[in-house]
Write a structure and sequence with these properties.
elongated, 139 residues, mainly alpha, 5 helices
């Protein structure tokens, strides 16, 4: 498998994790082991699952880890909404991260489709998705 650091999908997930860590620095201290921990863990889990899947053998295992990354992304979305509603996170910042997360979700879906098509010998879809991946490269 390819080095996960070369994957645009991992790079985007990593940027989201860094953004979440920065956003949660000024949350109330009482939330250190609550929402701060949850936001940081699920955001890091997205990138970690992509990295782990990349280190596994075969497209099926990689696809399984991409699915787990998408689940962690949904968890992240919920905690971002909760942080916004509790007024720990400005609505604009929450929307920025949510937009990044949705872009990442589309990119993960595209990578999954490409992996499945690559296993079936289709290169046309892979080439088309390379263009889409480049469009999502800026998270």
């Amino acid at each position: 498998m390819k080095d996960f650091r070369d994957l645009k999908v991992w790079q985007c997930a990593h940027q989201i994790t860094l953004t979440v860590y920065r956003c949660t620095r000024n949350f109330p201290r009482k939330e250190t082991y609550g929402i701060v921990s949850q936001l940081r863990r699920c955001s890091a889990s997205v990138a970690a699952n992509i990295a782990e899947g990349c280190g596994r053998s075969g497209n099926a295992e990689f696809g399984r880890f991409l699915t787990m990354a998408m689940g962690s992304g949904s968890e992240l979305e919920y905690f971002l909404l909760l942080a916004r509603d509790l007024e720990y996170l400005a609505a604009e910042k929450a929307q920025e991260v949510l937009t990044m997360r949705r872009m990442l979700n589309r990119l993960i879906s595209k990578v999954q489709t490409d992996r499945e098509n690559a296993g079936q010998g289709s290169t046309r879809s892979v080439n088309r998705s390379d263009r889409r991946a480049r469009a999502f490269a800026k998270c």
